[in-house]
Predict the 3D structure of the following.
Amino acid sequence: MSYVDIIEIGSGCCYGFDVLDHTQTVRIDARATSPIVATPRAGLPPQRATLADVARLAGVSAKTVSRVMSDDAKVSAQTRERVLLSAKRLRFRPNQLARGLRRGGVSNTVAFVIGDLHNPFYMSTAAGVERELAERGLTMILATTDDSPGSEAVVVDALLAQRVRALLIVPIAEDQSYLEGERQLGTAVVSVDRPANNLVSDSVVLQNREGTAAAVKSLLAIGHRRIGFVCSPRQLYTHQERLLGYRHALLEAGITDSVRWERLEEIDGPSTEESIRDLLAMDEPPTAIITGNNRASAGAVRELLTRRRDIAFIGFDDFELADALGISVIAYDAMELGRQAARLALARLDDPTGPPRAISIPTWLVPRGSGEIPPS
Amino acid sequence: MSYVDIIEIGSGCCYGFDVLDHTQTVRIDARATSPIVATPRAGLPPQRATLADVARLAGVSAKTVSRVMSDDAKVSAQTRERVLLSAKRLRFRPNQLARGLRRGGVSNTVAFVIGDLHNPFYMSTAAGVERELAERGLTMILATTDDSPGSEAVVVDALLAQRVRALLIVPIAEDQSYLEGERQLGTAVVSVDRPANNLVSDSVVLQNREGTAAAVKSLLAIGHRRIGFVCSPRQLYTHQERLLGYRHALLEAGITDSVRWERLEEIDGPSTEESIRDLLAMDEPPTAIITGNNRASAGAVRELLTRRRDIAFIGFDDFELADALGISVIAYDAMELGRQAARLALARLDDPTGPPRAISIPTWLVPRGSGEIPPS
DNA sequence: CTGTTAGCGCGTTCAT
DNA sequence: ATGAACGCGCTAACAG
């Protein structure tokens, strides 16, 4: 048996209405001197209506139809009505490809390039992007690099060939200078979540340092002195910022040997669970642990929730069920990240020469219990 | 202070090159009668290079360049080299819009219309769609209806105006007959997760009944007789199928009054938590509960995990942390759902007149503990 | 193997 | 207020 069940419904002739009927239909087309049969090959669908088709039916010129479709004011209400009626009859739909081509060769799509579709954080961001774009009649294309630095340029290349108006990108490759040319050609480029490398561009990032610093301070306030930091492999920038916030807050409190409790995982290195076990097996184990991203938080939940409920725990990135499980987190508005990114792109399209702007999105601590456990 | 921090980096003149320069530069273009001047910076033209530009630089005709770019075999290795070199120099990128327009007025994008970007289930499906499309050089456009039946037609309309090659849609409106015309015009339509209403189309759905039936049977096998079913509002079809599987399995075991333990939530009705409390407050409360989707599962986790660990619980849809929390679920390969949907669309493009196909994706029970709790 | 001509569907320019 | 001609960038259909 095959992996999936496939069922054919009915026979060919039952699919939709009989296509043979169609071949008898006549396309409204002045270019034809005699009534033409819709398709030479049986089974091919009829053609889409064009501006010219609508114009003919309405008895006006193509340009007039164009004006009506573009909401150009200079059309009499009477002809406008006639045109709209004809358009509706023919199920006319302006071809955005042709429109874009004529208007400078660009589409009305914006690309958002992320590393991984499964990360809920990116999804909320994408939702924000989409909503913001929709208000301007733009469509979002979501593309992924599969978190592989090598595929970034390939993916971006395909998108640029589509003539996306703007490129919102979570940089993954080590160098984005290849986008400089595109930027000059009028494509708005916005780096999201991390700044681009070797490329001056608008950007939106989180207040990462502030987030971990707030978590550390909160833990210090209830008496913790040995605080661990565990982070799954993600990207240098986010890692480092969050680490810096952690270190800085500890230094401010006079704790200078925090490096002992730092566990920054490499790809293919030990898992979060292993890192945490490692930390807790130390001579002077931490009494509290901060995780640097949602993946590490999942690992921490697995390791701590069931066995060590005496260890305080705060995770970066909010997640579903965190409230149900009583996990304190450093949260932020991921959707706002997307909205702001889209807004930067739109502003850039309106003003290609203005100075680049960097927006940072606030982060805050959400106490839910796990972060309020005192040192034992 | 505003909600976000905005920082302007540097002054205007530092952002890329000065646009005033631009107006002085002359585009590399034979149509220009005056001597051709390259751009002041790096020799890059401010305009995008076109086929004609490349052709001129390579000393061939536009068509030859076209052939090279389309990997048309009938070009000598020598001219091919020259063309490729010129293309690289000018950073030429074929305009997919123009290409699509010429080749029948369609783009090379495929739309996937879902209800909600936040649902991880759809995200995995989208990942499957994207991967499958990428192999054919197609791009995915992800659009959302915000789970609002009214916006479906609006969203779809915008996508059709983009001339997407195919439309993969999770139907939300009560009627998809408006797509019949588009199908006939050659747009492949595939309904995902639910069959379309009043429209004959290819479709991919889950084996919903089999999933709940398996869960019920597993619970019956360890002695449960009173089994509850709770489902958050989603869509009639999925609801009903899962409910039918549940009822059928109970009937087979001779349990005919299961309707007492069914809680099918309406929008704005009681929450899952309330439904569960309601069930457990009955005279003869269920000893096991099945949730019909991931949202209901989240509610059940909130309600059961902390207080009532004596109640067996199986959720439909797998979710992150389900393993860490020991939650038994009815799982399936969400990505495969997307892959199959994309494959159906591609097959439909190749053969517009074949019979419609319906694919169903297997579901299976993943025992992790919560579903193996015996009746108390 | 390569070039020429024409036109995809639409919007711009200029005319009326 | 409306229309005719032209061209956006590219490729199909024919040349040669």
Summary: Residues 48, 50-52, 62-63, 66-67, 69-70, 94-95, 97-103 of chain A lie near DNA strand C (CB under 10 Å from a C1'). The longest helix of chain A spans residues 236-252. Residues 10-45 of chain A have pLDDT under 50 and may be disordered.
